[in-house]
Amino acid sequence: MKTLVLHVALLLAALPAVAQSGPKFSTSGDVRLRWEDLSTPSASAAADYDFTHARARLTLDLEGSTWKLHATGQGAAARSLPDNAAFGIGRSYWLASDRDTDPETAGLLELSFTYKVPGFRLTVGRQAYGDGFETPTGLDRLDVVKRTRLAERLVGNWEWTAVGRRFDGATFAVDGKGGNLSGFALRVLSGGVNLASPLEQLDAVDVYGATYTFKRGSLMTHSELRLFDVGTHDDRAAIAGAAGGSLSFQTFGASLLGGNASTDWLVWGAMQRGSWGATDQAAWAVVAEAGHQFLTCPLKTWVRAGVAMSSGDGSPGTGDRATFFNLVPTNHKWYGAMDYAAFSNLTNTYVHALVFPAPRLQVELALHRLELTERRDAWVLGSGPYDDANLGYVTRTGSYAGSHIGDEIDLIATYGISKAFAVEAGGGFFFGGEVAEASLPVHSDGTWLYTQLTWKF
After folding, report:
1. What is 66-100 written as a DSSP string?
2. Is 362 helix (H, G, I), strand (E, B) or coil?
3. Does domain 2-456 have CATH number 2.40.160.100?
4. d(CA 253, CA 248)
5. DSSP state of 416
6. Which DSSP category does 64 fall into?
7. Of 1, 10, 121, 129, which residue is the least packed, with the fewest Cβ within 10 Å?
């Protein structure tokens, strides 16, 4: 109720601006239907299961010369979630949705007011936010790389799931010819795999910070340099009780993104300092990758390779905690489409290829080798908090003979039937290594298949 009152007050405060200029009204929306089938690496009798989910959104925008009122409503539902599975996204949906096999929900996904003039933008209210794409590069191809390979690594909207993730708060940007200064102060909402109450403010999970981007060409001819600092504070009672106190981190670092019409490169690095309850936190993470698109090839093949490594703790329970904490990201984009790993104590070596056999057809192939950075530390899965009772990450600990979690192969095809309709189909295969075999000794391999239809209007 408190959040709703604040949003209504925001709209009332914006009415004078609306009255001063002739507004433009527009509508848009989308509907997404998906079926998923999983054979999970698990000892459960329900290792194999399938389920469906659907999501519909309607957006209303009222926009003037210096302002914009924005609202999006969302309805979502899932059917036939497994009630006795031990692994996989289906189990996560069921647990997070009050153990309901057929959950459904509807609510106000976004409600915000934006004030904008040349060189400045301020948005307050309920909104989407992803770190890493604060300003475009000026090159369309490089913007695709920025959206798909850089944005949402630490703070993201988790759009792959049935309901996504949103934030309450404020964001701003000051934009100049050579640089962009952006900042945010946001309260994390539930959502993600939570279909029972996906649009509730979590009791006390806040993210805040600032980014300065030296635009492409201002310091280096073909590259942009981005400096960032993301603060996180989690004071939920259940989490503080388990950790012996609040979770509080500063994650600061830089990224270098560059490229031209056919080649691109990306380097990203972060240090993390703070506290895990009564224990000091000192962790790190790095990413390096490069890509090349063969524009003269009939399939316009785009190939990239890289490695993403986050620190683990070589002696858990003693001294400072050294396991990198993944914050509130969109992990589905990064470490395999089957969502078997988070960016904590992880070394992910990967090759990724896109081919375009026909004008509206895209085929994506990805290969991942997933390893523990420190084999004495845990195997971590998840993508951040979705309710007040759970950290949002699951840890699997054990006596591992090696560090190899497993290998994953993903193959996904997307076909644009028209400008409004698109169909996707694909899946993945997971071949368990020493870590999966020790943690899941009965079945350490897994498969995943899905089909999806999207309509945008």
Report:
1. SEEEEEEEEEEEEE---SS--SSHHHHHHHHTTT-
2. strand
3. yes
4. 17
5. E
6. -
7. 1
| Bridge partners, 168 (sequence order) | 126, 187
- Say if CB 216 and CB 201 are below 8 A apart: no
Amino acid present at 378 = A
- Give which of 123, 7, 95, 92 is closest to 332, Cα–Cα: 92
pTM, rounded to two decimals: 0.93
What is the distance between the alpha carbons of residues 193 and 181, in angstroms, rounded to a whole number?
Answer: 33
Sequential DSSP letters for 197-226: STTPEEEEEEEEEEEEEE-TTTSBTTEEEE
Q: Give the span between the Cα atoms of 153 and 176, in whole angstroms.
A: 25
Q: What is the spatial distance between Cα 58 and Cα 96, in angstroms, rounded to a whole number? A: 25
Taking only Cα atoms into account, the Rg of the chain, rounded to an integer number of angstroms, comes to 22
What's the token pair of residue 208?
């805040």
Sign of the CA dihedral with 136 first, then 137, 143, and 149 last = negative
* Alpha helix segments (H runs only) across 104-234: 140-149
Residue located via tokens 């690594």: 153
Task: From first to last of the 457 residues of the chain, give the pLDDT tens digit.
Answer: 455 445 545 544 554 554 455 799 999 999 999 999 999 998 777 899 999 999 999 999 999 999 999 999 999 999 999 999 999 999 999 999 999 999 999 999 999 999 999 999 999 999 999 999 999 999 999 999 999 999 999 999 999 999 999 999 999 999 999 999 999 999 999 999 999 999 999 989 999 999 999 999 999 999 999 999 999 999 999 999 889 999 999 999 999 999 999 999 999 999 999 999 999 999 999 999 999 999 999 999 999 999 999 999 998 888 899 999 999 999 999 999 999 999 999 999 999 999 999 999 999 999 999 999 999 999 999 999 999 999 999 999 877 889 999 999 999 999 999 999 999 999 999 999 999 999 887 889 999 999 999 999 9
In order of 35, 88, 340, 412, the CA distances from 337 in angstroms are: 15, 12, 8, 10
Q: What angle do CA 414, 417, 421 make, to 5 degrees?
A: 90
